[in-house]
Amino acid sequence: MIMEMRNGVLKDVKVWPTIRFLMFMPTLSSGPIDRYRRFEADYEQVPDRQRYLDFVQSATWNIMLGFFYKFIVAYLISAKFLIPFKKAALLEGGIFNLPTLGVMYSYGLYLFFDFAGYSLFAIAISKFMGIDTPINFNKPFMAKNLKEFWNRWHMTLSFWFRDYVFMRLVLVLTRNKVFKNRNVTSGFAYMVDMLLMGFWHGVTWWYILYGFLHALVLIINDWWLRQKKQKNRDRKKSWFGTITK
């Protein structure tokens, strides 16, 4: 809100609407992270009967699916896989072992179903209140690469960091010509963006490492996509590419 006020996008901000937005009950605890302008537009425009009935239908489904995700699937993953894998990993010891790999994958799945289930509850309650809170997950484990994964996982958080950290940092670096190469600029912005996201999750070494590793893989992923794009261009320019086009 402060950034958008500075840019002149938000011009009429009052105390009570701001408090109402910040204290909105369904998303107060853990999100999804909404935007003031989007929320206020929803709040000011009361849905008509048909739209509200659609909200109720969608909200009912979200509650049922959220319950299934959080209290059945996440519970089973934790009880049947995560906890046994943790115990086995500790018994085997060492830096890395097969049960540790099991912990990694089972924890990732547990985290998704637990948080996605909670997010569905928040979205459902919002819809009962006439607010169309944005979705937070879109089949993240079906993503083709890490960049696409972050466009599907905790979407409201990743889009917030994209819009208010990554894009603004790229703009500042480009304007001031800090780096000559635009790929270096985006790589530096990825690193800052993901390290900040690590700090956001918690000021501990493993979250900072998590941010660093994700930034590193995003940079490699961008490099790989550029190489792939260039190879496709070269193939099309060749005599073989011209024949098969």
From TrEMBL:
Q: Name one GO cellular component term.
A: membrane
Major location category of this protein: membrane
- Tell me the domain of life: Bacteria
Record's bilayer topology term: Multi-pass membrane protein
Is-annotated flag, keyword Cell inner membrane?
no
Q: Which InterPro entries match?
A: MB_O-acyltransferase, MBOAT_fam
Q: Which UniProt keywords apply?
A: Membrane, Transmembrane, Transmembrane helix
A Pfam family hit: MBOAT
According to its UniProt record, where is this protein located?
Answer: Membrane
Residue ranges of the TM segments? 61-83, 104-129, 183-201, 207-225
Q: Which GO terms describe its molecular function?
A: acyltransferase activity
Keyword Ribonucleoprotein found: no
- Protein name per Swiss-Prot or TrEMBL: Integral membrane protein
Species in which this protein is naturally found: Weissella viridescens
